[in-house]
Amino acid sequence: MAHGTAPEMTRAHSHDDIELNVVTSGAIEYLMGERRVRVEQGRSAVFWASLPHRLLAPAGEPAEVCWAHVPLSTVLTWGLPAADLRTLLEGRPALAAMPLNMDAAGVWQRWESDFDRRDADAALLEIHALIRRTLRAAATQPTGTGPTSHPLDMAAFIMERFRDPITAADVAAVAHLNTEYAMTVFRKAWHMTMGRFLLCRRVAEAQRLLATTDLDCSAVGYAAGFGSGSNFYAQFAKLVGTSPGQYRTALRTTGTPPD
């Protein structure tokens, strides 16, 4: 949970959460793959943050935004309709207008207080409801720009099996496609290779474990699906820009990951 001025991001990042944004003043603009997505004041956005995204420099006064990150594993226990889950996996945000009488900043402060008191059940129910309403409202808008079933099937397989030593052939088999053709289809839909997608998923899981457990860094790497400690350290630093240990230290001393 967070709220405040939207910062410019110098590089794209990813994390294995469902992200909920509500813009309370101004507007924000994301770069998601090759798409520019603008979220105006009074609107909410929901998207799967495992896909690399970056906040662009604001035009005019910086926007004020409320953020909530909910682990995908939690969202999957909510029993969302299949159409809503498909929307989350399509790689584009669901956008909707907020209720006119909702004081988002006040709501976020109440939710943050719930989490601080380790009494998150009520807050999670309300977050669930807001995410569901946003997805439902977005479903009434014209679609047709998201990936088709083959890329979705392959992405879902990687998400579920990322801890295993899977290959491109394994992923292609899920969609009953030739491996080379499947790689082309995947890259066209998600704007990244299967290998990059898998790496982002594993690093996102490592970030979650570094933030929420006391496992040593090597154990985090193995738990996230990396076959060796050296590969984990190298890939994490390449994608995140800092070592796993530095990432954890920054979280515990400042409450936020390093820039």
Write a brief caption for the model.
By secondary structure, the protein is α+β, with helices and mostly antiparallel strands. It has helices at 72-75, 82-89, 104-116, 121-139, 149-161, 168-174, 179-190, 194-212, 217-223, 229-240, 244-254; strands at residues 2-5, 17-25, 27-32, 35-40, 43-48, 53-55, 64-71, 94-97. It has two domains: 2-139, Regulatory protein AraC (Jelly Rolls), CATH 2.60.120; 149-254, Arc Repressor Mutant, subunit A.
Describe this structure in words.
The protein is globular, with a radius of gyration of 18 Å. The longest helix is centred in the middle third of the chain and has 19 residues, at 121-139. Helix 5 crosses helix 7, helix 8 packs across helix 9 and helix 8 packs across helix 10 (229-240). The chain starts with a strand and ends in a 5-residue tail after the last helix. By secondary structure, it is α+β, with helices and mostly antiparallel strands. The chain contains 11 helices and 8 strands.
